Amino acid sequence: MTRNSVSAPLKRLFFLLDAPLALLLAFTITMFILILVTPLLSVLLGPSLRVSLEVLEGFQRYPYLAWPPLGEWVIVSDRGDYKLIIVRLKDLGVIPNTLIVATTVTLLATIIGVFMASIVARYDFPGRGIFRALAVIPLLYTPFVNAFVLYKVFGDGGILGQAMLSLRLGYSVELTHLAGVIVAQTLMFWPIVYLNTLAAMLQVDPSLEEQAENMGARGLKLFTSVTLPLSLPGVLAGSGLVFLFSMEDLAAPLAFKVNNVVSIRIVNSIIGARDIELLGVEVAILAGALLLVALTWLIVIRTYLSLRHYAMIVRGGRWQPRVFKPGPIVYALIYLVAVPLLLLSMSPQIGVLAYAFSKSWLGVLPSGLTLDNFQYIFRDDMVVRAIRNSVMYSAAALVFIVFMGIASAYFVNRIRAVGVSFLDFLVMSPLVIPGLSIAMGLLLLYGSGPLKGTIIDPFSNPMILIILAYAIRKSPFTTRAVYAGLQQVHQALEEAGMNLGATRTRVLLGIVVPLIGLNVLAGALISFVYCMTEVSVSIVLGALKPDQAPITYVIFDYLTAGYGGGAYVHVAASIVALILFVQVVAIFTTNYILKYRYAFLGL
Amino acid sequence: MEEVVLENVDKAYGKVKALDKVSIEVMRGELFTLLGPSGCGKTTTLRVIAGFEIPDSGRVYIDGVDVTFKKPYERSTAMVFQNYALWPHMSVFDNIAYGLKLRGYSEAEIKRRVGWVLELLDLKGLEKRYPLQLSGGQQQRVALARALVVEPKVLLLDEPLSNLDARLRLRVREEIVSLQKKLGITTIYVTHDQEEAMSISDRIAVMDRGRVVQVGTPWEVYNKPVNYFVATFMGRSNTLNGIVSERVSEELYKVDVKGLRLYGIAPGGRSLSGGLQVAVVVRPESLRRAGEDEKVNVIEGSVGRVSLLGYTLQVRVDLGNGVSLTAYLPSRDSVVVGERIRLYVSPEEVKLYPAKEVDLELQD
Question: Residues 20..59 of B with a Cβ closer than 8 Å to A: which?
Fold first, then answer.
């Protein structure tokens, strides 16, 4: 018997691919190694070389750990005719603060998200369609300004307190400091749990629930014994993302003036440093810790995150999900809890517009309808240049994204070979890897050592790395869209072409790409929007050279410069309003022209 | 002369063995069928020939050339896919012309050849349509046209009739055979339908769990099944449990089926020892009413269910010893439920297979 030689696996790979495709795949993998894997390794390994006992001891002292905790939990002050209750929570130091905030936010967001998803998935109530449509709004990206709006609602002299005063209850409440961060992040992030849970619930085969009912389970019992466990992967994926997003979030701590959390700590010290040597090793360790948490989570939800799993979601939903008429209690929950909560969660997006189109916002309502803010930003060279930069960087990144997306989706979907599931894992991982860790890794890897001073050194020329980092971070959205398209193209359509004499590349270009063109377009549009709204890498690398900075850095700069509100918030909000506009256009295009739904936001 | 040769081809997916030392030789101009239940490896075999799968070991030759590692587009095969795989974004003409364009024919030549095949398959006038505007039968013919127009050495048909309704299936089946004979093109045909296989094939390879169990003409495979699997897969049959009581001659044995004594043969040159447990296979159509004077190989019982299938009368006969079997009698016979009936089967039609072998075959 002739064994087909020792090099069979390699031979097989060459058999499956032809040269252009193999090159494209090699290029994709190289990009991921250079821009994702190696930088992350240098975050994990680099600082450990410089770790000393002294550094570790430093983590036991302020600001990393504060014991006894500083400040007050709650301050009640007598203002004569009313009592002012300021909820702020004590400062326990950078590390405990971050963990407490992330844990609390995750718990609250999970409860709200699952609650909202259950209502939408299982109850048919008047206004359900509108509710579902509105639930997308909190997911629209409003970088930084969202938290400033929530500060306006809950914070010092906020709308909540003023509303309570005008109701003459005899007391008034303000949420500040960590308490404010928790509430703000909960309102910002619960829709992520909602969306993932909803997708999972709509995927549950109705007959599984019907079987349980048939055996006597109903109501809450049915929900806790069948529906929830079956949707658990979605819930977990959503909660995990919330935990990571909370740790990485800069907006809420910035708005509520909290300095002692990991994310702010990292960004402040990088922006302060003008050279990699000035970067404290503690900060690099924090970025590494952030990464470790993310990696742990990534491994836990690996199957849920993979392209192959996603394919199941796309194919699902062929059946009619079960919906019920709500009883009185559920009606009360919907209209007294869910709807107000949803409206409150939309306040960042509404608030952005309110800030953008108003002269000032001191009382409950903004005043002075105006377009001045927009005129102002278009006259500001820095803003105009940043917009140009962002569009240019995103467009450049998109070229990479489309090629890498097609290559990796095609490979994962079509080629049965060793390492495919690893590739799947690799190309989808940027969805979860914290941008701050990537930014830190790029600084460590390309800002020091042999590459220092070269064209790619971010301290002198951050543009290249920003583009490449956008390409890696935002490629999963396109990859996923291409993958979904490939699902619809039967493999036999390609085999028929090859059978008639076309090479694989030729089949890909002549048969597959024309058939999935709309998917590629939709995916590219999504990736483009997310490039435009990218925060972590933009701020960290943009700060190194402001004339090369993208738009999100400028928003950040305006808000930190105009610290405590004031006119700059209005200017920043008008930039964000433009970004909102781009997102809305993109959503309408993908949903209605390309008939491509639900893939836009969330995970 | 051999056109397609497979030599000891192995193919595994993970731990599942899809092909286990498959060797076949297909002659030039022959219509050769791969027949077997789903999962038997017939489609995998076809895909190995087309080049969509490479074997883990073994060799594939087309027209004397080793093509084992040749890419699909470097072999001169043309496949008709089960779902036709017509490109939805191309018209009928463009679908058919695709392979010709790749071969660099001139515009005029492409037109001429496509015209020829449109005529051949009665597709004239449809060339501007798109696949979704065609009926199932038309799509099928377009797929066939697309494969034939490049004048391949080998035509590969993967269950080409399975997506057609029953009436159309019979017609297209005849069309394929007459076309194949007219063009004299070597054809490998995959199906799980044994009746289809028998009606069209020059030769059949019966496959079971990745192995080729028997290769032969339809007549050989039906009448001389080499093992229990083939015997029961081809057509309907009754399987009874028996014990060999004595060897009568070279091939002939006497068996005991719960008190019923039958003479039968052991196919494939096996020799069975006395006392051996065997599966006794009798086809319903080899049973007939016994004459008064017939004493040997007579099966007596009472009539259970009777169903008229049209071309035959299907009669369930209960032998009273816990054994029952099905017989096909002429449609015009009158058989009453409950009546006693005597049936005769000739010894050559009673096939004995060692029970152990059967168990092995049935193991999954």
Answer: 21, 50-52, 54-59
Q: Which of A317, A352, A387 is the last residue of a domain?
A: A352
The residues, any chain, with a CB within 8 Å of residue A357's CB and separated by 6 or more, are A366, A369, A370, A371, A373, A574, A577
Tell me which residue in B8, B146, B150 faces A1 most closely, judged by beta carbons.
Answer: B8
The CATH number of residue A124's host domain is 1.10.3720.10
Tally of domains in chain A: 2
Cross-chain Cβ contact B52/A511 below 8 Å: no
The distance of A404 to chain B (nearest Cα, Å) reads 25
Q: Which sign does the torsion angle of CA A311, A316, A317, A321 carry?
A: negative
Query: Do A34 and A147 belong together in one domain?
Result: no
Residue A361 placed within a domain: no
B82 lies within 8 A of chain A by CB = yes
Provide the mean pLDDT of chain B: 91
Does the pTM surpass 0.90? The reply is no
If asked whether residues A30 and A152 sit together in one domain, one would say no
Q: Cβ separation of A495 and B72 shorter than 8 Å?
A: yes
Interface of chain A against chain B, CB under 8 Å? 1-4, 8, 11-12, 15, 18, 490, 492-493, 495-504, 506, 511, 514-515
Q: Do A403 and A255 fall into the same domain?
A: no
Q: Does B98 touch chain A (CB under 8 A)?
A: yes
Residues A25 and A75 in one domain: no
Q: Would the pLDDT of B67 be above 90?
A: yes
Using omega within 30 degrees of 0 as the cis cutoff, is the peptide bond preceding A68 cis?
A: yes
Q: Which residue has the higher pLDDT, B271 or A344?
A: A344
Containing domain of residue A226, as a range?
A: 70-259+327-352
Question: Based on the domain organization, do A393 and A428 belong to the same domain?
Answer: yes
The answer to whether A266 and A250 have CB atoms below 8 angstroms apart is no
C-alpha triplet B93, B98, B102: angle, nearest 5°:
145
C-alpha distance from residue A350 to each of A128, A137, A157, A344, B286 (Å): 21, 9, 19, 10, 84
The domain boundary residue, chosen from A318, A352, A386: A352
Residues A348 and A400 in one domain: no
Token digits for A300? 């836990």
Residue A291 lies in a domain: no
- Mean pLDDT, residues B269-276: 86
Taking CB atoms and an 8 Å limit, are B146 and A2 in contact across chains? Answer: no
All residues of chain B having their beta carbon less than 8 Å from the beta carbon of residue A495 are: 50, 52, 72, 79, 81, 85
Residue A595: C-alpha distances to residues A309, A522, B3 (Å): 21, 9, 49
Give A497's contacts in chain B (Cβ within 8 Å): 87, 98
A204 inside domain: yes
pLDDT band of residue A1 (cuts 50, 70, 90) is very low
Q: Which amino acid is at B62?
A: I
Average pLDDT, chain A: 86
- Nearest residue of A to residue B80, measured between CA atoms: A496
Q: ipTM beyond 0.95?
A: no
Report the percent of chain B where pLDDT is more than 90.
71
To the nearest whole angstrom, how far is the Cα of A498 from the nearest Cα of chain B?
5
Q: How many CB atoms lie within 10 A of CB A372?
A: 15
Q: Are A243 and A256 in contact (CB under 8 A)?
A: no
Burial A479-508 (b: 16+ CB within 10 A, else e): bbbbbbbbbebbebbbbbbbbbbbbbbbbb
Residue A511 within a domain = yes
Same structural domain for residues A36 and A158? Answer: no
Q: A508: which chain B residues are within 8 Å (Cβ-Cβ)?
A: none
Residues A381 and A343 in one domain: no
B190 touches chain A (CB under 8 A): no
CB < 8 Å to A505, chain B: none
Residues of chain A contacting B8 with CB distance shorter than 8 Å:
1-2
Q: Nearest residue on chain B to A498, judged by CA atoms?
A: B73
Cβ contact A495:B79 at 8 Å: yes
